[in-house]
C-alpha cells in the first residue's frame, strides 16, 4: 500500500459523539487523536445541532445531502405503504448524496459504512454500505466486498454478537472500517473520503454501563483515525456526529395511551392493528418471514382469542411485573405472541395515533391519505390544533413538562416529501423523556431504555482550507455537506438547507437536479429488522 492518496477532504462520522461522551475520554488521555481536534489551536470545533428527529436513519441522509427530511424523504427506520412497512434503504433517499454531486463534477470518492446507502447507486468511486444494509451487502463497484475481505480478512457491517466480549466485538468492527477505507483509498485515489463509525452509538444502546467496552471502542476508533490520517494524508479532516447521546432522566410517556384517554385513539384486542410492526424480534422473522404478510401461528391465535376475552398481554405483564418475572418471561416469549395478545390501535376507528415512536410525532387518520382515514379534510386543522393544544399542556407526575415543543410539521419539514411526515411534531423536553407508541394501563412509566439520543452532537475540522479563527458558529447537521463541498471548491446545491460553516470560504451555489424515482420494493433482510429492534429503534 502506498503512503498516501490524493485525498483532499476526509469526513469522519462518529455516531453519537458529543461533549458528554468525549470529555471523560479526553480527561483520561484515552483518545489523543480525537482530542487534538478540540485542543489544537489550528482546528475549529464546537457543538453540532442535530435535526428533528435526531435518529440515525434520518439524520445521516440529512448530513450527506444537506437537506431536511421533507426533501430527502427519510423520517425513521421504516418506510410505509399504507400499514405495510419495510426497513428504509438508499432508494428511499430522494436527494443526491455528496459523492453523487462530486462525481458529476469529476471528483472520485470512497465511502465506507455510512448508514442508509444500500443499495448503492453508480458514481465515480467505491462504496461499502453501512447501517440498514444486510450483512453481505451489494457494494459499488460490484465484487468490491470480496476484494476487501481478501485484502484485510473478514469485514462485517455489524458487530459479531456471538462474541461475549462486547469490547472485543465492537473494537474489531471499528478496526475493519479503518482498514477497509485505507485499502480503498489506495485503490481509488479519491479526492473525497467518508468513513463512518457506527459502534460508538450501538454500544450505548446495548450496554451503556459497560465502561470498559465503551472506552475500548473509542480507543480503537481513535487508532483507526490516527492511522488513516497518517496513511492517506488528507488535506482537510472534518469530524461530525449525527446526534448526541445521554441518559434518560425523565419518564416514559405512552402517547397513544394519552390519545386514547382524549378520545382520539380507539383500540381492539387481539386484532391486526398496531403494534404489528412495532417489534420484529419474533420467531417468524428469525425464520425469514416478513411480519406484514405471514400467517399467524397457533400461539398467536390463542393469545388473540384470550385478548378478546380481556386477558391481554398488558394485563399479564402487569402481574408478572408485580412478581418480578417480566424480564425472565420476556426472554422466552416470542414477540409475535405478545403482540397478538396486546391491546392495539384500531386504525379504522381512530382519529389520530403515533405510528412509530422514531417519527417523533402524531399522525391524523385523514380521509384520502390513510387507508382507513376517518377525519374529513375540512376537519384536519381543527383536529390538529386540538392535539397540539392538548399535548403542550401534558406534565409528568412530578409536574415537569413532557414536551419542549409541539408544533405543526411544516415548522420542521418542507419539500416534496413532506406529505410523508407526521402531522404534529412532538419534541420531548431536553430529550429526557422516552416517547413510546405502546399501549399500557398507565400513561407514564420508567424509560424502556436507560440511554438514548440527544439533540447536541459535535463537529471539528482542520486543514489548509479551514480557518480556525472563524470557528464553526452555530453549526447544524445540514451544514456539513455544504462545508465539505466548500473545502473542494464545489458550488453548494441551492436547495440545501444548510450553508458552509464560517471556517470555510463559500464556493457559491448552483442548481442540481433531484434523483429519478427508483424506489425499490424493500430491504428484504430479516437480520436488519431484528437488529433495529434489538437496539430499541423498533418497540
TrEMBL record:
Keywords of the record: Hydrolase
Biased composition, class Basic and acidic residues, residue ranges: 513-523
MF (Gene Ontology): hydrolase activity
Entries under InterPro entries matching the protein: Alkaline_phosphatase_core_sf, Phosphodiest/P_Trfase
Keyword Hydrolase tagged: yes
Sequence segments annotated as region (Disordered): 497-523
Keyword Hydrolase included in the entry's annotation: yes
Name of the protein: Predicted phosphohydrolase or phosphomutase, AlkP superfamily
Matching Pfam families: Phosphodiest
Amino acid at each position: 500500500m502506498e503512503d498516501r492518496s490524493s485525498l483532499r477532504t476526509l469526513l469522519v462520522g462518529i455516531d453519537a459523539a458529543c461533549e458528554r461522551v468525549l470529555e471523560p475520554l479526553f480527561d483520561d488521555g484515552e483518545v489523543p487523536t480525537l482530542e487534538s481536534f478540540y485542543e489544537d489551536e489550528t482546528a475549529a470545533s464546537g457543538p453540532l445541532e442535530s435535526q428533528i428527529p435526531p435518529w440515525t436513519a434520518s439524520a445521516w441522509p440529512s448530513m450527506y445531502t444537506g437537506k431536511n427530511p421533507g426533501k430527502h424523504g427519510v423520517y425513521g427506520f421504516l418506510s410505509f405503504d399504507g400499514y405495510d412497512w419495510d426497513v428504509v434503504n438508499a432508494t428511499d433517499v430522494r436527494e443526491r448524496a455528496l459523492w453523487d454531486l462530486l462525481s458529476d463534477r469529476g471528483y472520485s470518492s470512497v465511502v465506507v459504512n455510512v448508514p442508509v446507502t444500500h443499495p448503492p447507486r453508480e458514481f465515480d468511486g467505491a462504496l461499502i454500505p453501512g447501517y440498514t444494509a444486510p450483512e453481505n451487502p451489494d457494494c459499488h463497484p460490484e465484487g468490491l466486498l470480496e476484494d476487501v475481505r481478501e485484502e484485510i480478512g473478514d469485514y462485517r457491517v455489524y458487530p459479531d454478537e456471538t462474541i461475549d466480549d462486547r469490547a472485543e466485538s465492537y473494537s474489531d468492527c471499528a478496526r475493519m472500517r479503518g482498514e477497509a477505507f485505507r485499502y480503498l483509498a489506495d485503490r481509488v485515489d479519491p479526492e473525497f473520503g467518508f468513513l463512518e463509525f457506527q459502534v460508538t452509538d450501538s454500544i450505548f444502546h446495548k450496554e451503556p454501563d459497560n465502561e470498559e467496552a465503551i472506552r475500548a471502542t473509542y480507543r480503537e476508533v481513535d487508532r483507526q483515525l490516527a492511522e488513516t490520517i497518517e496513511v492517506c494524508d488528507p488535506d482537510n479532516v472534518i469530524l461530525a456526529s449525527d446526534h448526541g447521546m445521554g441518559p434518560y432522566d425523565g419518564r416514559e410517556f405512552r402517547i397513544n395511551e394519552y390519545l386514547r384517554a382524549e378520545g382520539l385513539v380507539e383500540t381492539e384486542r387481539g386484532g391486526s392493528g398496531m403494534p404489528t410492526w412495532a417489534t420484529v424480534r419474533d420467531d417468524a422473522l428469525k425464520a425469514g418471514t416478513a411480519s406484514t404478510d405471514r400467517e399467524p401461528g397457533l400461539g398467536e391465535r390463542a393469545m388473540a382469542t384470550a385478548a378478546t376475552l380481556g386477558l391481554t398481554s398488558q394485563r399479564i405483564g402487569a402481574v408478572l411485573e408485580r412478581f418480578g418475572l417480566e424480564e425472565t418471561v420476556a426472554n422466552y416469549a416470542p414477540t409475535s405472541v405478545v403482540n397478538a395478545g396486546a391491546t392495539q390501535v384500531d386504525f379504522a376507528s381512530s382519529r389520530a395515533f403515533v405510528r412509530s415512536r422514531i417519527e417523533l410525532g402524531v399522525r391524523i387518520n385523514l380521509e384520502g391519505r390513510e387507508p382507513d382515514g376517518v377525519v374529513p379534510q375540512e376537519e384536519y386543522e381543527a383536529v390538529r390544533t386540538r392535539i397540539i393544544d392538548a399535548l403542550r399542556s401534558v406534565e409528568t407526575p412530578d409536574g415537569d413538562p413532557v414536551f419542549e415543543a409541539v408544533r405543526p410539521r411544516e415548522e420542521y419539514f418542507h419539500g416534496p416529501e413532506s406529505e410523508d411526515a407526521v402531522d404534529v411534531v412532538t419534541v420531548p423536553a431536553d430529550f429526557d423523556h422516552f416517547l413510546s407508541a405502546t399501549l399500557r394501563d398507565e400513561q407514564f412509566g420508567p424509560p424502556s431504555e436507560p440511554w438514548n439520543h440527544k439533540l447536541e452532537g459535535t463537529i471539528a475540522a482542520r486543514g489548509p482550507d479551514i480557518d480556525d479563527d472563524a470557528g464553526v458558529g452555530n453549526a447544524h447537521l445540514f451544514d456539513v455537506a455544504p462545508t465539505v463541498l466548500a473545502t473542494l471548491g464545489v458550488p453548494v446545491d441551492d436547495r440545501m438547507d444548510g450553508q458552509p460553516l464560517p471556517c470555510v470560504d463559500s464556493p457559491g451555489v448552483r442548481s442540481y437536479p433531484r434523483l429519478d424515482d427508483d424506489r425499490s420494493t424493500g430491504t428484504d433482510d430479516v437480520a436488519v429488522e431484528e437488529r433495529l429492534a434489538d437496539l430499541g429503534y423498533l418497540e
